[in-house]
């Protein structure tokens, strides 16, 4: 199921030597695609949030390495030394483009292992195998999204209208399928249920208003944008949502969750008002090598995204800014973590260990 008819977030061009991405920094003003043919262009697209969302970043990097490899074979510009060494260099470079999300480093490590297992093969065969593996990562994520949505529906009222609050964008623009936090919303809407979504605007880059509201409107789902400071007032009003559903960029072994900054505050508000708070993410986002949230590296963004993010000064140019891209929601504020393997309840350590392949 494709929830809207806009271009898909990322795909290989017909020759397999370049990536075509939907430039998410242009939305909702313009639907623009960009063609990426170099590792520098792919890295810039990931860092600048032209493509974003932990699963989609991993998919983009994997397809990107496949495209770079085929391009090197076709043009004979793979550089000095074995092509496998160039592939390893590309993987390691892209793996550091955004440090917080687990899917990026996971996807790059998966490609590196595959290349190592292949051993010495002709360059064209290396390119073919990398493309197949990257497409498999994409296809697997698409299937995981649907299963996450199916499991998450078990936590929500089975009849009547649904009202859901979400933060940032964890939908089709952030994944290889129908999303994580938005997956049950699309499935319920597709089944004919009345669904209404409250979407936090998500400062400073407004992923909730620019992206979540846009893709939900494209799919015909009713959506109301909230400023980030409004969720508490909503929960205190007569329109209390049935649940808060969010995605994740990394889930630590103990169930602590790194997600777009503002998620922690939303979880605190949900706990105070008795609103269920659920995290929806594929097992590729679960990092069992990271014991707890304190061990998750948090990316700091350019202060200009706060002071001059959309071309107009919103603070004095010399103002100090602290702008983490993510925050950590402690496991004790999370009611359930939903992966493609099912619903995992606290305490999370044993359940996550069993869920991750």
Considering the chains and any ligands shown, give keywords for the structure:
4-stranded mixed β-sheet, 357 residues, 7-stranded mixed β-sheet, 40% helix, 2 domains, alpha/beta, 14 strands, single chain, Four Helix Bundle (Hemerythrin (Met), subunit A), Rossmann fold
Tell me the structural class: alpha/beta
Mean pLDDT figure: 95
CATH fourth-tier homologous superfamily of the largest domain:
Translation initiation factor eif-2b, domain 2
What general form does the structure show?
A: globular
Number of domains: 2
H-E string: EEEHHHHHEHEHEHEEEHEEHEEEH
Helix content: 25-40%
What does this structure look like?
This protein is α/β, with parallel strands linked by helices. α1 packs antiparallel against α2 and α3 runs antiparallel to α4. A hairpin with a 6-residue loop joins β1 and β2 (19-22). The longest helix has 31 residues, at 123-153. Helix content is 40%, strand content 15%. It is built from 11 helices and 14 strands. The protein is globular, with a radius of gyration of 20 Å. The chain has a 7-stranded mixed beta sheet with strand order 6-5-4-7-10-13-14, sandwiched between helices. A 4-stranded mixed beta sheet has the order 11-8-9-12, with helices on one face. A 3-stranded antiparallel beta sheet has the order 1-2-3, covered by helices on one side. It folds into 2 domains: 10-145, translation initiation factor eif-2b, domain 1 (Four Helix Bundle (Hemerythrin (Met), subunit A)), CATH 1.20.120.420; 152-355, Translation initiation factor eif-2b, domain 2 (Rossmann fold), CATH 3.40.50.10470.
């Amino acid at each position: 199921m494709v929830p809207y008819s806009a271009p898909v977030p990322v795909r290989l061009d017909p020759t397999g030597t370049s990536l075509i991405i939907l430039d998410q920094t242009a939305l909702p003003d313009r639907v623009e695609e960009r063609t990426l043919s170099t590792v520098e262009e792919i890295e810039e697209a990931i860092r600048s949030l032209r493509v974003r969302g932990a699963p989609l970043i991993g998919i983009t990097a994997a397809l990107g390495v496949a495209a770079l490899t085929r391009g090197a074979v076709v043009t004979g510009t793979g550089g000095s030394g074995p092509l496998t060494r160039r592939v390893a260099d590309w993987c390691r470079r892209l793996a550091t483009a955004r440090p917080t999300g687990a899917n990026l480093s996971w996807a790059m490590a998966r490609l590196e292992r595959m290349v190592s297992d292949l051993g010495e093969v002709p360059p064209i065969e290396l390119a073919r195998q990398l493309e197949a593996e990257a497409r498999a990562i994409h296809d697997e994520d698409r299937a995981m999204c649907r299963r996450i949505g199916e499991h998450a529906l078990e936590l929500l009222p089975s009849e009547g209208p649904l009202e859901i609050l979400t933060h940032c964008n964890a939908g089709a623009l952030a994944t290889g399928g129908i999303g994580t936090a938005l997956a049950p919303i699309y499935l319920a809407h597709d089944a004919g249920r009345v669904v209404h979504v409250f979407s936090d605007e998500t400062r400073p880059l407004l992923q909730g208003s620019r992206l979540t509201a846009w893709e939900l409107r494209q799919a015909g789902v009713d959506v109301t944008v909230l400023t980030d400071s409004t969720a508490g007032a909503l929960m205190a009003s007569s329109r209390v949502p049935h649940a808060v559903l969010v995605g994740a960029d990394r889930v630590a072994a103990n169930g602590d969750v790194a997600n777009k900054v503002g998620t922690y505050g939303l979880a605190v508000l949900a706990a105070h008002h008795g609103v269920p708070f659920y995290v929806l993410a594929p097992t590729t986002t679960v990092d069992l090598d990271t014991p707890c949230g304190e061990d998750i590296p948090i990316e700091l963004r350019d202060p200009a995204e706060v002071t001059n993010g959309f071309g107009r000064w919103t603070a004095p140019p010399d103002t100090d800014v602290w702008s983490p891209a993510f925050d950590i929601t402690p496991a004790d504020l999370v009611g359930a973590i939903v992966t493609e393997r099912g619903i995992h309840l606290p305490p999370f350590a044993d359940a996550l260990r069993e869920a991750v392949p």
